[in-house]
Amino acid sequence: MGDSVGVTTPPVESPGALPRPTVAIPAGRAAGVLGRGLVDPADPVLAAEDLGLGRGDGCFETLRVLAGEDPGEQRRVQGWDAHLDRLERSCAALELPRPDRAAWAALAAELVASAGSGESALKLMVTRGLPGSGVPTGVATLAPLPASALRQREAGIAVVSLSRGTPADAHADAPWLLGGVKTLSYAVHTAAVREAERRGADDALLVSTDGFALEGPTSSLLWWADGALRTTPAGPTGILTGTTQEALFAAAADEGVRVEAALVPVVDLTAADAAWFASSVRGIVEVISLDGVPLPRLPELTARWRRLAGF
């Protein structure tokens, strides 16, 4: 097994194949493949039998891209090193080759140059590639941040609790469950968000079968109680350690804030002084209600956490 991510080249379209429909690509969108550079975002880049497509066998990272405030100012990718560190950990857990950081940085720079004004999301994806090939595929995309993410950042989110279906320590002795790994297999996460929306909420809080609040489908859970900023512990819980949460906790601790990792029963979360979801795309978002129960809001702390996390 090599030391860097290679590229699987998709099959060449045969002369008798149906013509590909013309797709209008909105401004600010771009795509690229490791080893090839930029490609048309509407072009196929995976072979039909790629295990990332057929099995969700791979991992990814999503990073926030900030456009310069002044014309000509360089765009900035937030938390690059932290995200690449986590991508390396995910690849190691999946027994995939270690990502070539220089190659990813070069590809990301090409995509980021296509970013429009405002904020964008840069996604880096690694698939296992064709069965038996041992050659992963690396793909990156860039797209403007969804309007819903910006709206929720300002307005806050209503959240409903949904069962994860396992106890809080389910991942303690089961590494094959890939706890803490950001895999491509996100169907359960997106299904949880759809269920939350069916119930009239904006997002879901995943809860263990023994009653502990864990995380959002794409976010870390934060809450303020007894003068401490808290989040769910990783490890046995199997939650994904968030890069935004880690950056916030490090900066908050430097300012003398007490930060802790602790399990909290979901029934006790409504007694917290405030709660937030944290992610790379939405940033620090206030949880304004849980299962229909309004939660306190602390705008001063929200503003402080956003400043410390770079939002």
UniProtKB/TrEMBL annotation:
Gene3D superfamilies referenced in this protein's UniProt entry, alphabetically: 3.30.470.10, D-amino Acid Aminotransferase, subunit A, domain 2
Pfam families xref list: Aminotran_4
GO cellular component: cytosol
Sections of the chain in a coiled coil: none
Region listing for Disordered, in residue ranges: 1-20
Keywords from the UniProt entry: Lyase
GO aspect biological process, one term: carboxylic acid biosynthetic process
A Gene Ontology molecular function term of the record: lyase activity
Family note: Belongs to the class-IV pyridoxal-phosphate-dependent aminotransferase family.
Protein name per its UniProtKB record: 4-amino-4-deoxychorismate lyase
Organism: Kineococcus xinjiangensis
